[in-house]
Amino acid sequence: MTDLLLNLLLSFDATLRVATPLVFCAMAGLFSERSGVIDISLEGKMLAAAFAAASMAAVSGSAWLALGTGIAVSICLALLHGFACITHRGDQVVSGVAINILVSGLTVVLGTAWFARGGQTPSVPNSARFTPITLPGAEAVADVPVLGAIYSELISGHNLLVYVAFAMVPLTWWVVYRTRFGLRLRAVGENPNAVDTAGISVARLRYTAVLCDGVLCGFAGTYLSIAQNAAFVREMTAGQGYIALAALIFGKWRPLPAMLACLMFGFLDAIAIRLQGVELPVIGPIPVQLIQALPYVLTVVLLAGFIGRAVAPKAIGRPYVKER
Amino acid sequence: MSTASVKIPVWIDVGLIPLVNIALAFLVSGVILFAIGVDPLQAVEIILYGAFGYDEALGYTLYYTTNFVFTGLAVAVAFHAGLFNIGGEGQAYIGGLGVGLGILALDPYLPFIVLLPLSILLAAAFGAAWAAIPAYLQAYRGSHIVITTIMFNFIAAALMVYLMVNVLIQPGNMSPESREFAEAGHLPFVHEMFGWFGIAVTPSPLNLSAVWAAVCCVLVYLFIWRTRWGYEIRTVGANETAAVYAGIDPKKVVMLAMCVSGALAGFVGINEVMGVHHRLLLNFTAGYGFTGIAVALMGRNHPIGIVLASLLFGMLYQGGAELAFEEPKVTREMVVTIQGLVILFSGALAYMMKGPVERAYLRIVGMTQRPAAQEG
Question: Which residues pair with residue A279 across a beta bridge?
Fold first, then answer.
């Protein structure tokens, strides 16, 4: 019994760690897409931030400076995306793809030029990382059955950014549903004409949304390279930006469901290795690749409307042209 | 605008503005090279020599070009229907799987002359099938083709890993590769073909599929501009509402365009699997599907433009490898960076230079025309 519980707890623990960048990116995408700007470039922004943060941490030795750099670089890319999609009414998907490809090349080029380690950054010492925090009283209650174990194993012992990520979910919800900015954000994604008619600048709102997106992707990237890991490795995002996008669609562009989707995808990832070679009755052994592909398959199935309908913001992907 | 009476000639829109965009992309690339301490001009020299300087280099350049022609055409055909096919990578992967499965099953029994057309058919069929699912979901179930094709890239990758590791791996082999095809399943290399006539050419991966790529360019041109289907595709791409009024069914057009697109991407499998590796293996698509996006944008979705853009990227791939070899500070990923910049400037920021270039043109024209008008 305790064995099973501990196993389960460890899986959930791993789930939280894997889901953290997904949650950041999903919330990032939520701001952008709710304002009507498709963001395929979550992946690229996260990768760029991961590289910038690891480089800064390796050079300066300060985790906070690294976080700031990661966020700043991610914001620059977000503004580039905004410049292409909002100011010049370029194709949002093309812009996103361009950023992803650009970053995937540039991080290796710069990494090799600066550190001469084949695109990796030097490993970052613990003093320049976000390291696990033991919450108050975690050790004291560790022996309390079930609840104590949950508190000390599952809730305590993560690094700061994990807590920030999950705090972002209610914050995002509050901003999007309970503030004037959020109301306008939702409106501009559904009907930019109406927002414009009300005398509010569509471009300005969308730029603000894209900025929020940049900040959150900066957190995600920083988490990857100096909290979860201790260096930048080429292509270290490995498609997680796309998974986050999938989670956002899965959550129907709403904060809480999107977070749950992130947790589900994170859980699949966390148990993928454990399930390797496990024989299921009737089906037989489960291929790891199937579990890895599951988020993508599920998203396609959802998008096709076979399990409920994913209704995107109405004006998504459409550049706004003010009538003259 | 007061100068609206002066018409902007077509060559500005089709010729000059794309060139300006590409020039910007290269300018930024040069700045990046400069920033990491490499002389951009010297880099260009190394790239040009590395890509065209000797016959082996030329062979490699044309071999990469072949792949980019296939994926570039694939993206372009979808673009004409107003669809953005990001799934070229997955379609190429699955197309190669089709080629591999066909040859693995049949190479003991059939001669090359039968296997070749069969492989082309299989590459097309598998690639088209992989594109048909997102196309169907877009046309009939309203899911967004961009998202589904991205997802299908990942699903294709997972599927291939599963098949290679568990099913197609050669028994007793550690790395996930199939057995090597029999001679009948090899596409002849160009250096071999030259050898038949007694001309010595340094071996390179360039093979017969380059000819097929050229044929595909002609076929795509005829298809898009000389057939009813192509007309329907262009009409839907230009204005879907008008197309519906004209009695065109956009759903069928989406299916058609994506299947043709997927088939073209699948031909990468002919070049890679049948032409070069002679076995099924992992990751032979190596990002060619994504480069196709840059190629199509740069080539303005026209076969001639695509051949030129493919040649440019072929040059960058091969010359870039040479540059990485010569200059330890530069890696091959510099080419990926340039690719991203090309997509950014000639795709996402395509309209940025339109205004300035047109204003500059009007100013130049205005200067030369005013005295003439006064004389008349």
Answer: A285
Q: Which of A271, A199, A241, A3 is nearest to A103 (CA)?
A: A241
Nearest CB partner across the interface for A105, out of B137, B161, B333: B333
Q: Are A242 and B142 in contact (CB < 8 Å)?
A: no
CB atoms within 10 A of CB B59: 21
Cβ–Cβ gap B348/A110 under 8 Å: no
Does residue B76 sit at the A interface (CB-CB below 8 Å)?
no
> pLDDT tens digits, residue range A97-115?
999 999 999 999 999 999 9
Closest-CA distance, B79 to chain A, in angstroms, reads 12
For the question of an ipTM over 0.95, the answer is no
Which residues on neighbouring strands pair with residue B207, listed in sequence order?
B189
Query: How is A228-283 classified by DSSP, letter by letter?
Result: ISSS--TTTTTTHHHHHHHHHHHTTT-HHHHHHHHHHHHHHHHHHTTTTTPEETTT
What is the tens place of the pLDDT at every residue in A232-291? 999 999 889 999 998 998 898 999 999 999 999 999 888 877 777 677 777 677 788 888
CA–CA gap between residue B312 and residue B291 (Å, rounded): 11
Do B340 and A98 lie within an 8 Å CB cutoff?
Answer: yes
pTM: 0.91
B residues 106-135 near A, CB within 8 Å? 134
User: B293 contacts in A (CB within 8 Å)?
Assistant: 94, 97
- Distance (Å, whole) CA A183 – CA A176: 6
